[in-house]
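Long-time lurker, first post. I've been practising inverse folding by hand and with some scripts of my own, and I keep getting stuck on stretches where the structure tokens seem ambiguous. Below is the full token string for one chain I'm working on. Before anyone asks, I'm not after the true native sequence, just a reasonable design that respects the backbone. If someone could post their per-position residues I'd love to compare against what I wrote down in my notebook.
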């Protein structure tokens, strides 16, 4: 199904603006309004786990709620987009930047690694699905640096206490209610 390119470009602009507003508020739940009622949102977490939220309510409560708790002070500035109006595919590449600074004045975060989101546009300024991808090597290194330097927020420390991967939305590899490659 082909989509109007101008509409998809406007969707990107709306999405980026909403992300910036949610980052400032420290609340990503309003982003759920950008998904269709039956949308899926997931990511792979290595060789044993997948995360998958199915439907707008799980996207709001789990992907934008539970999974973002403790990440206040983090921003995810989009760097580049690839948009295919013939298929509805939109890929946004972003960085992960923490508002705490190192002694040299640079921000902690995943600024050299690759992060991004692959969206399937569903029309009417809504996404039908989203899959995120992360550079886990740089994520692990950045988190270790943040904890070693003792600059993790209280929310981030609490997040690590409960981050067992056994929370709602987490599934053994290949057992999520929607396939990771939902194409």
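-- Answer (accepted) --
I ran through it position by position. Result:
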């Amino acid at each position: 199904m082909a989509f109007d390119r101008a509409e998809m470009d406007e969707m990107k602009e709306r999405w980026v603006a909403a992300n910036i507003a949610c980052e400032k508020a420290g609340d990503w739940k309003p982003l759920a309004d950008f998904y269709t009622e039956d949308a899926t949102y997931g990511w792979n977490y290595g060789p044993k786990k997948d995360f998958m939220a199915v439907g707008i309510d799980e996207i709001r409560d789990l992907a934008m709620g539970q999974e973002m708790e403790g990440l206040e002070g983090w921003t995810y500035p989009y760097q580049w987009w690839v948009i295919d109006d013939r298929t509805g595919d939109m890929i946004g590449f972003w960085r992960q930047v923490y508002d705490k600074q190192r002694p040299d004045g640079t921000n902690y975060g995943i600024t050299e690694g690759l992060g991004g989101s692959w969206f399937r546009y569903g029309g009417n300024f809504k996404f039908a699905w989203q899959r995120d991808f992360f550079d886990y090597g740089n994520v692990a290194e950045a988190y270790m640096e943040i904890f070693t330097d003792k600059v993790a927020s209280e929310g981030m420390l609490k997040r690590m206490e409960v981050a067992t991967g056994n929370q709602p939305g987490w599934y053994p590899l290949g057992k999520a209610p929607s396939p990771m490659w939902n194409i």
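A couple of notes from the structure itself: The mean pLDDT is 92. The first strand starts at residue 35 and ends at 44. Happy to go over any region you disagree with.
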